[in-house]
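Team,

Forwarding the record for the chain on the shared tracking sheet. I've put the sequence and predicted structure together so nobody has to dig through attachments.
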Amino acid sequence: EIDALSMWILSCVAIIYLSQKYKGQSVSNPDYFFLIIGFLMCLLSFFCIPLGITNPPFSIGEFSLFLSGMGVMIFALLGFRWLLLPVSVPFIAVMGFSGYETFLRNEDWITAPLIPVITNITVAMLNFLGLSTTVTNGNIISFMSQTGSPINLSIVPDCTGIWSLGTFTVTVIIVLSSFPASFTKKSLVLIAIGYLGTVVANLTRIVLIALAGYFFGPSGVIENVHIHIGWIVFSAWLIIFWYYYFTRQLGIVFFKKKSESA
């Protein structure tokens, strides 16, 4: 209930702000497309439990879907297009949480095809670096450390980089929705490179964990590397990629050059 209240407060604040910002602007004709969308949103609020999208009983989450859909219908009918997105925030939030919960329930079979791919690529990279690596049970990477202790790394769903890919997708949606003019063929190529780089960053993370085990053994350093290296590598990649995107694709200057004195 508190989460739902917070979403509606945020939505109402956005609606009030935009109402003041666009005060006096000419109202457009009724938008029948979004009128239909709003009706479907209301309809979904009654069928999302039978469809397995949300869990019974009918509560504040499903009611938020209905109210959000009604808001979309009203603003679409009045021609207030700039208010359609903020009134849809509760709907987006509820569906997002439901999608997240659904993903958690099905994470194992969704990532199952990725595990052998990630395992084989990691083994190839480690062998290239000189580690004599073997695979057992299809997802356990084994090799001997310099300390003489065996290292066994299990490639599990979290190791596939699925969460990093999801986070990168969210950043892409935010950027493209904030800068719609940047949606070009070149931007699509850059974003494809961004996804590829995210996969490489995840593989780099696994290799660095393996190297920590190879040099320092199965405990201590490898545990700290496993905890921290993921967010460090991924954060560095996001900064590098979006800095290049903003400066090259959007032409945004973050650091102004100092003017030379005469």
